[in-house]
């Protein structure tokens, strides 16, 4: 009892003493936190170099694309075959992946030795022997994955996920006729030649990807694979836009860093010790894989051996003696280190045994020193590994623009798994170097074989899901023939709406506006304008100045219209409007002035005069009772009278499309079409009086308010409508009405997208089949999201934050890509439909005038048209395609509904006051 405690005390003291001695001797092996941080920064630079197209050819760290674009989501299923070729064994693994809830994987495994003569024989020989064995094992399984993990990937060029060109054999393989060829094709050829079974080779991966994919099945956050075994390497999911070697910048792809080659261009020279140089000089590939040689299991034992030899030679160990065994390369196996670094006393016993087996005569001090050497060498390995891993973590964190990254690393390799302290030291240092990352390390079970099967399983899942999604999205894609059809049908409805006989049944009402003339620049005066048509109400004072440099000054105030007023009684609505006008006049100090007034009222109205408008029906969310069928000007006048506060002088009632056209026409006389794509959509244009049968007279032109949003209400769009359009229509304020508008405008596009997303989720094609409560809410997916998402060049950051806002917190990168595709398809269809309608309009104007070629300007307004990054270009593209004889310029209107209303009022006043005669 006494003796052993004495020994323990003695040991501790001796230990500290000896350890101190070794620490001093091996100072250059011990890296401070600052140095490790510096290594991490250097490695990040090397990663950038490897990712960049220009610097990649000379980069030491190759950052190879793996063509693995997605990690498992747990819904994979099926049976897969995995071949694992490397070293002296060949492994065939049958992996059964049970789908959804079970998330279970079953495996059958068979290992075959590869005889020496085959390893050095011809390619076809290795083929034949393996495939014979393969058949016995798998009984004609149809699906397979080929996995070649041990061959160093930097010697391969991969061009696709199922193609891999072998640059040169390593690990003792010398088969002729294989180098420079695609290994997968060779395998396929061999199988074909035999002709008695069939496997479909889906993927070729390396072991880091295997580790990541294996762990990814159990933990969906897993996006890094790490190997510390015979060699060392890591892979991670990189943003496509950073991978300059490949085209395309959406989504992610796994990058195999090949970090073992870090330092091959001299980046680690100041940290490499004489021993590192000695190891390298004696290796099979001098000057190559320098980082790996400081870390991995293949070299760790040898590093320790060389240090021991050197210390012995300097009389610091073994009384200055060495043995032939100790001097033999490879005699100190890395496995010894695992035993030596075991718990103190047990470790000491192991040390003694190892050293004695090497023929050494030794003391307790020698054992303590040897143990310390092992600790220092393996700690350096763990810390260097932590430094490079920290760089990868920071890269992922920056890609996601996340303040705190939560991620999982799938790890495999004998050093990580068998060394008693390596993993703990690695984890600790990673957390010290990147304290803002919450990292989970997950050990990969069954390693690469299961991983290869997972890659295949994911590829199969993606292919099946992709086909299903495209089938659904295709219903939202319109062909050129369909668009031509839309154009023709719009054209037909226009004629029906203009004709007295068919006007009643026509879905497109083609309402006369009594606006016959556009401004000529001589208008002047102060005008009041009201603008009601969306979610807000505006009052404006517009000052029009005539003369050479005619110009318009405006002052305005915006008032909101609460939902309950929009859907209350008409009296409440108009009282609210009058209240706002009163407030504005007060604000401008103009109470008492009775200015001419233009009222932009953007709902379908029947007009018999310029200063009258009978509301046909509410649109865009308005439902106020007692207004439909009434003259809106009268309703407003009644409200003014009720308030008895001020007086108004009504001159013109205007639709916003007309205002838009007129305000553009003030600058561009060729502007004869007005288009709105905002909350709703509508068009007006200058029609020949002779075609407007509802109004007397055949001379000159009049602006016609098409109210084209109602196109389709008689079934003209039924064959283009999808289930999503029907759902949006059914849950709208006026089912069956405004069908064209419901496929085009801002009020509905977000809803269409939301319905597609719900359908995809219900079918398990999105968000792993899990819907958030928020996404079930009508209107929650705003149309402005479509603009933000399509404008997103920041690697889906916008998409992710929008999805988070919608409660979809665990959405993946694949989900973001898909959401973006849905937005693109829905917005594109809207813009194409709008372009097809416009083609009908400009063609009609051209034909009215018997022109071969028409040059015309369209004045446009509406937030969707103006803010969406692609909407306007698709409209123009479609229009050009469907109406090639018309040259159409688009002019974005600045405040058509305010300025335009005032200008129409000004023109009317000019005419009333005996100015220039109205055009006929
Ligand atoms: P209104 O048509 O009501 O007069 P706007 O032209 O401003 O008004 O259109 C508003 C509509 O535009 C909203 O219903 C919304 O759906 C849509 N919207 C708002 N912001 C954007 C955006 N950034 N991109 C696309 N659409 C948008």
Automatic annotation (TrEMBL):
- The segment(s) forming the Hexokinase N-terminal domain are 22-217, 470-666
Record GO cellular component, one term:
cytosol
What EC number(s) has UniProt assigned to this enzyme? 2.7.1.1
State the Gene Ontology terms under molecular function: ATP binding; D-glucose binding; fructokinase activity; glucokinase activity
Role noted for this protein: Catalyzes the phosphorylation of hexose, such as D-glucose and D-fructose, to hexose 6-phosphate (D-glucose 6-phosphate and D-fructose 6-phosphate, respectively). Mediates the initial step of glycolysis by catalyzing phosphorylation of D-glucose to D-glucose 6-phosphate. Plays a key role in maintaining the integrity of the outer mitochondrial membrane by preventing the release of apoptogenic molecules from the intermembrane space and subsequent apoptosis.
Record-stated family:
Belongs to the hexokinase family.
Its assembly, as annotated, is: Monomer. Interacts with TIGAR; the interaction increases hexokinase activity in a hypoxia- and HIF1A-dependent manner.
What name is this protein filed under?
Hexokinase-2
Supply the source organism for this entry. Monopterus albus
């Amino acid at each position: 009892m006494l003796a052993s405690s004495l020994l323990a005390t003695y040991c501790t003291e001796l230990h500290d003493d000896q350890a101190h001695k070794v620490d001093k001797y091996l100072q250059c092996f011990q890296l401070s936190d600052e140095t490790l941080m510096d290594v991490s920064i250097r490695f990040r630079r090397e990663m950038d170099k490897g990712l960049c197209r220009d610097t990649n050819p000379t980069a030491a760290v190759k950052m190879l694309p793996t063509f693995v674009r997605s990690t498992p989501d747990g819904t994979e299923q099926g049976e897969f075959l995995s071949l694992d070729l490397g070293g002296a064994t060949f492994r065939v693994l049958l992996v059964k992946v049970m789908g959804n809830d079970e998330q279970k994987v079953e495996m059958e495994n068979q290992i075959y030795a590869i005889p020496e003569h085959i390893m050095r024989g011809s390619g076809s020989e290795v083929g034949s022997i393996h495939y014979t064995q393969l058949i016995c094992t798998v009984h004609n399984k149809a699906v397979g994955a080929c996995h070649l993990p041990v061959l160093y990937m930097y010697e391969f060029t991969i061009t696709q996920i199922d193609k891999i060109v072998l640059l040169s054999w390593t690990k003792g393989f010398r088969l002729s006729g294989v180098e420079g060829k695609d290994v997968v094709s060779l395998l396929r050829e061999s199988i074909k030649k035999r002709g008695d079974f069939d496997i479909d080779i889906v993927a070729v991966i390396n072991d880091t990807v295997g580790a990541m994919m294996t762990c990814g099945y159990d933990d969906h956050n897993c996006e890094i694979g790490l190997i510390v075994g015979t060699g060392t390497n890591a892979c991670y999911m990189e943003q496509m836009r950073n991978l300059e070697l490949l085209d395309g910048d959406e989504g992610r792809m796994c990058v195999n860093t090949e970090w073992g080659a870090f330092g091959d261009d001299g980046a680690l020279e100041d940290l490499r010790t004489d021993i590192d140089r000695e190891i390298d000089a004696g290796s099979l590939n001098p000057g190559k894989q320098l980082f790996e040689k400081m870390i991995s299991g293949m070299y760790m034992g040898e590093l320790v051996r060389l240090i021991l030899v050197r210390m012995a030679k300097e009389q610091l160990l073994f009384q200055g003696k060495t043995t032939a065994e100790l001097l033999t390369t490879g005699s100190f196996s890395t496995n010894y280190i695992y035993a030596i670094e075991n718990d103190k006393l047990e470790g000491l016993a192991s040390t003694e045994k190892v050293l004695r087996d090497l023929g050494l005569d030794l003391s307790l001090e020698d054992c303590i020193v040897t143990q310390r050497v092992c600790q220092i060498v393996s700690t350096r390995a763990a810390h260097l590994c932590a430094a490079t891993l920290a760089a990868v973590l920071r890269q992922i964190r920056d890609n996601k623009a996340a303040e705190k990254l939560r991620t999982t690393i799938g790890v495999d390799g004998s050093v990580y798994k068998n060394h008693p302290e390596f993993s703990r030291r690695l984890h600790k240092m990673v957390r010290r170097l990147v304290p803002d990352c919450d990292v989970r390390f997950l050990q990969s079970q069954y390693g690469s074989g299961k991983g290869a099967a997972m890659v295949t399983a994911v590829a199969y899942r993606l292919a099946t899901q992709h086909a299903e999604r495209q089938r659904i999205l295709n219903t939202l894609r319109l062909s050129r023939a369909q668009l031509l059809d839309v154009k023709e049908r719009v054209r037909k409805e226009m004629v029906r709406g203009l004709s007295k006989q068919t006007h009643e049944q026509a879905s497109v009402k083609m309402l006369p506006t009594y606006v016959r003339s556009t401004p000529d620049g001589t208008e002047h005066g102060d005008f009041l304008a009201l603008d009601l048509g969306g979610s807000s109400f505006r009052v404006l004072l517009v000052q029009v100045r005539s003369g050479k440099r005619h110009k318009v000054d405006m002052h305005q105030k915006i008032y909101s219209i609460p939902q309950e007023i929009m859907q209350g009684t008409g009296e409440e609505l108009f009282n609210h409007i009058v209240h706002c006008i009163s407030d504005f006049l007060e604000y401008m100090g103009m109470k008492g002035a009775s200015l001419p007034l233009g009222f932009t009222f953007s709902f379908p109205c029947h007009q018999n005069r310029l200063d009258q408008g009978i509301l046909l029906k509410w649109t865009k969310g308005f439902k106020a009772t007692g207004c439909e069928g009434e003259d809106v000007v009268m309703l407003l006048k009644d409200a003014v009278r009720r308030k008895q506060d001020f007086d108004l002088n009504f001159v013109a009632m205007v639709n916003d499309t007309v205002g838009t056209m007129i305000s553009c026409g003030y600058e561009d006389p060729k502007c004869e079409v007005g288009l709105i794509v905002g909350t709703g959509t509508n068009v007006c244009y200058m029609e020949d009086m002779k075609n407007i049968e509802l109004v007397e007279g055949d001379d000159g032109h009049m602006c016609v308010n098409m109210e084209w949003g109602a196109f389709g209400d008689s079934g003209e769009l039924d064959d283009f409508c999808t289930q999503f359009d029907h759902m949006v229509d059914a849950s709208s304020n006026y089912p069956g009405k405004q069908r064209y508008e419901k496929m085009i405008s801002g009020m509905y596009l977000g809803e269409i997208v939301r319905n597609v997303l719900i359908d995809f989720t219900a079918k398990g094609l999105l968000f792993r089949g899990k819907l958030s409560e928020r996404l079930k809410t009508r209107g929650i997916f705003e149309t402005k999201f479509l603009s933000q998402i399509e404008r997103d060049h920041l690697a889906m950051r916008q998409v992710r934050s929008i999805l988070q806002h919608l409660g979809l917190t665990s959405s993946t990168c694949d989900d973001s890509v898909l959401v973006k595709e849905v937005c693109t398809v829905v917005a594109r269809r809207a813009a194409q439909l709008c372009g097809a309608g416009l083609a009908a309009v400009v063609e009609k104007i051209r034909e009215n005038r018997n022109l071969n070629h028409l040059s015309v300007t369209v004045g446009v307004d509406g937030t969707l048209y103006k803010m969406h990054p692609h909407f306007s270009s698709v409209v123009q593209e479609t229009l050009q395609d469907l109406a090639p004889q018309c040259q159409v310029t688009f002019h974005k209107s600045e405040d058509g509904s305010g300025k335009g209303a005032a200008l129409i009022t000004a023109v009317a006043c000019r005419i009333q006051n005996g100015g220039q005669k109205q055009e006929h």
